[in-house]
Amino acid sequence: MSAAPPPPEGGRHRRLIIEAAIGLTARSGWSAVTMARLAELVGVSRQTVYNELGSKTVLADAMVSHELERFLSAVGAAFDRHPDDLVEAVYDAVRAVLELADDNLLLRAIASATHGADMELLPMLTTRAAQLLVQAKTMLTERVLGYGPDLTADQIAAAIDLLVRTVLSHVMQPSDTPAATADALAWVAARVLGTPARPRLRHAATGG
Fold first, then answer.
1. pLDDT in tens, the chain (208 residues)
2. Rounded alpha-carbon distances, angstroms, from residue 171 to 19, 38, 90, 177, 181
3. Which residue in 56, 202, 71 sits closest to 140, CA to CA?
4. Backbone dihedral region of 3: left (phi > 0), alpha (psi from -120 to 50 degrees) or beta?
């Protein structure tokens, strides 16, 4: 007996279903997510949900992929906004990611692979946490190289590893506002990457 074909990637209701599943997981946990409940939330038939996603396992993978895409898109957009200022790009990227993660339980669960995660989701989150680390470091390496820092490849790799792991730790357990943390890590980036430090902003005081 042949395997069933995979569900379509770009169905009309796919994104709405994924977003509804993410919201329901954040509110009530993964065990509360059912195809019937998602159909009710989105306003479609249960068969439509199955047609778009195929199974709950496929849905879980799609949810995680959706959040990883948002994470990496936020980083990429920050660097696009500052093509001539590496430290400002780092500041903007860190702040964007931390603001995105501020009330995003799924993204925090991916970052930690355990924090707040249902046991049913844990194996997938563990795998995707490793993927997130690799993808973020790969993207940042390409971006940073474009600014031409006077560092060896090994030095750049070490600096990026430090920054990415530190950001992910703040995603899991914030210790200050996104702006204040971004200020601090931008200062670190300036020191480590050998670029001029950005003027110290007053985000820590204003929260803005």
1. 333 344 444 567 999 999 998 888 877 777 888 999 999 999 999 999 999 998 888 898 888 888 888 889 999 999 999 999 999 999 999 999 999 888 776 777 676 654 444 556 666 666 777 778 888 899 999 999 999 888 999 999 999 999 998 998 888 888 899 999 999 999 999 888 877 766 655 444 444 4
2. 20, 28, 16, 11, 11
3. 71
4. beta
- Pick the closest to residue 140 from 204, 195, 189 (CA basis): 189
Separation of alpha carbons 107 and 68, rounded Å: 8
Contacts of 114 (CB under 8 A, 6+ apart): 122, 125, 126
DSSP state of 85: -
- The answer to whether 82 and 92 have CB atoms below 8 angstroms apart is yes
pTM over 0.85: no
With H, G, I as helix, E, B as strand and everything else as coil, classify residue 78: helix
Encoded tokens for 5: 């074909």
* Phi-psi group of 149: left, alpha or beta (phi > 0 → left; psi -120 to 50 → alpha; rest → beta): beta
Look at residues 45, 42, 40, 46 and name the one whose alpha carbon lies nearest to residue 15.
Answer: 42
